[in-house]
Design a protein that fits this description.
four-stranded antiparallel beta sheet; single chain; alpha+beta
């Protein structure tokens, strides 16, 4: 066991290592072709990105069980890679090419999400911490591909709640502040650059619940307000027009239910012409372009899977060519050089993380770089099938059902609500789902009301419905599975993280007869204390949170009714609780509250805490442990129920 040492003053709420070790041993018992480690070990190579000049490819791979940066030359993919970072305490969270021979990367400390920015050359030299500021979070705004010395970032160093934009020298760390964000009453929450890397647009919050789009023709001018909408109506800038820079392509649901991609004139403050693309079932919020050819190339959208609407014949032909050479796979262009003639291609499915390939356009050459998880055979995994059902009040609820190879009737089932909650589940390889299916369980992932991507009405239908109609959608999903004969009604579990953890607690609290057991992973237990412990940089959105979750004063009764911690006497099913001690989003007090409340009633609650983790476990050894404990818990209370 690792990272279980309590902090000074800790009350030893976590279960003893003996208790957790017993669950781990139960979870690893049995003869299975794949171990937990096979699903959650770090890939040897992943996250490939090509340098602007096309000479190098960078990727992340493990060093002492942490993700680090490696570089190989594009001309010789078999050459021994050069390791250029040696982080041992925490994975690299993300990286970018600053220029053809220098990279920047982000890393936090023990899950606190206060990301610092670092830089290093392709040969590992001149490594430097660029933002070594304690308790400050760095956001990447623009890699400024035409500027070899600088990138654009945002920092909350002047005020923990507000992010100011800076141009930072990637060699010295010298900062140049480009604008001020010093009004907490009207905070700017995003900064947007044009194709030349100039800071031309910003989004700010007005009156706590309104979104204001701001624009300027040149960096030397002050920003002027273009349009203000209720936050339920989104106008999200996607790209500037190449020939008329006051024309900006946006994803907007202003005056409509589904977001569409449309042009907007910043001078007249109005939409221009018809939408470039819209879809009657889902929001459209993605737009790709060729900077070299100065053209819009494609719109992507997600229904059951990701789909393309091409705006450019050259991009369409490239996609079709790659799909023919890699049949049966989803194809994604993940990176290209500045000349747009060398591409990194990922081919994947719902049963495999897939592989990365290098495509050289001038030679029409497609070369495999590596498989991401070659130790897992695709034919041993199972498919994720899109499903839909009707809620009790008539909404169409979409989701994904994964069935084990053992059959499709009378199965043990895990309901797996996604976090957020203002995101959605998508089709693709999911190691959690495949692990559970590999152990004989079906998994249902539900895009309950409040999930994004299905339009404004569906999203806002979840407002102030935590523990109420949002939870009803999950309950209706369970009943649908039972009616279909898929689920054994006596063997249904619920497991989720973040909001999914809240939904787990709500499920066993408000529908105790439905679930045989439950696993809460960094979940909210008390809607009142959750609102008081959000990170400081969420505070500008507190009024929006009140609109979406509930106002602690105006909606006190409803929030009390929806807070599982006040109703623990209704819990009947065994519960496992998992928490990162440094979680900045869902404070450890949320898990402590539910555990204390149950233990005060002499109910044993296995409680796993990691003191080097935050909102979810990233360190490899902790992931191994948590999924072994989860499997042991499910084996005891679901599979052998």
């Amino acid at each position: 066991m690792t990272s279980s040492t309590p902090l000074p003053g800790d009350t030893r709420l976590p279960s003893s290592e003996e208790t957790l070790r017993g669950l781990m041993e139960l979870g690893t018992a049995g003869d299975y072709p794949y171990a937990v480690e096979d699903f959650f070990r770090l890939p040897e190579k992943t996250g490939f990105d090509i340098s602007p000049d096309g000479k190098y490819i960078a990727y992340v791979g493990p060093y002492q069980r942490r993700q680090n940066l490696f570089v190989i030359p594009t001309a010789n993919l078999q050459q021994e890679p050069v390791q250029i970072t040696f982080e041992t305490d925490r994975d690299i969270s993300g990286f970018l090419w600053a220029n053809g021979h220098r990279l920047i990367y982000l890393k936090d400390s023990a899950g606190d999400e206060n990301y610092q920015l670092f830089a290093v050359n392709v040969d590992g030299r001149e490594a430097k911490a660029l933002t070594p500021f304690p308790n400050v979070r760095t956001q990447l705004v623009d890699d400024l591909e035409d500027d070899d010395r600088s990138v654009l970032i945002a920092l909350n160093k002047n005020n923990p709640q507000l992010f100011d934009p800076y141009r930072i020298d990637v060699y010295t760390g010298e900062l140049q502040q480009l604008a001020t964000n010093n009004n907490p009453a009207e905070p700017i929450d995003s900064w947007i650059t044009d194709h030349d890397g100039k800071l031309r647009m910003a989004m700010k919050v007005k009156d706590g619940i309104n979104a204001c789009l701001m624009y300027r023709d040149h960096e030397g001018e002050p920003f002027r307000e273009i349009i203000t909408t209720d936050f339920r109506e989104s106008i999200m800038p996607l790209a500037f027009d190449f020939d008329q820079p006051h024309i900006v392509y946006v994803s907007s649901n202003h005056g409509r239910d589904k977001s569409v991609v449309i042009a907007m004139d910043m001078h007249t403050r109005k939409e221009v012409g018809d939408p470039i693309y819209s879809h009657r079932e889902v929001d459209v919020s993605s737009l790709a372009f060729s900077k070299k050819r100065r053209k819009l190339t494609a719109v992507t959208y997600i229904t059951d899977k990701k789909h393309y609407h091409f705006l450019d014949e050259e991009r369409r032909n490239l996609q079709q060519k790659l799909e023919k050479r890699l049949p049966g796979k989803e194809i994604s262009l993940t990176s290209t050089n500045r000349n747009e003639d060398i591409y990194l291609v990922r081919a994947y499915s719902d049963r495999s993380l897939g592989a990365y390939h290098l495509y050289v356009a001038q030679e029409d050459r497609l070369e495999k770089i590596c498989a991401i998880s070659p130790w897992i055979r695709e034919e041993d995994m199972v498919s994720m099938e899109p499903v839909e059902y009707r809620s009790r009040d008539g909404l169409t609820i979409h989701g994904y059902l994964t069935l084990p190879k053992s059959g499709n009737k009378n199965l043990p089932v895990v309901i797996n609500p996604h976090g957020g909650p203002w995101v959605r589940d998508v089709w693709g390889y999911n190691p959690e789902v495949q692990l559970l299916a590999n152990r004989g369980m079906a998994v249902l992932q539900i895009n309950y009301r409040g999930s994004t991507g299905y339009g404004k009405k569906f999203w806002t239908a979840g407002f102030k419905e935590w523990g109420h109609k949002m939870q009803d959608d999950l309950t209706d999903g369970v009943k649908w599975l039972i009616e279909q004969g898929i689920a054994d009604p006596d063997r249904v579990a619920i497991y989720g993280g973040s909001y999914g953890g809240y939904a787990t607690l709500a499920g066993v609290t408000f529908t105790p007869e439905l679930y045989a057991c439950a696993i809460d992973y960094v979940g909210v237990a008390n809607l009142f204390t959750f609102m008081k412990t959000i990170p400081p940089y969420w505070m500008p959105y507190l009024q929006m949170m009140y609109e979406m979750v509930g106002d602690p004063e105006k909606d006190q009764d409803r929030m009390h009714a929806g807070s599982p911690v006040y109703h623990v006497d209704q819990i009947q099913a065994p519960l496992l609780v998992i928490q990162g001690a440094n979680d900045p989003r869902v404070n450890i007090d949320e898990s402590d509250q539910i555990v204390k409340s149950l233990r005060s009633r002499n109910i044993d609650v296995p409680y796993m805490v990691k003191y080097d983790e935050g909102h979810g476990f990233r360190n490899e050894e902790n992931r191994f442990e948590v999924y072994k404990v989860m499997l042991g818990f499910l084996k005891e209370h679901l599979l052998e129920h």
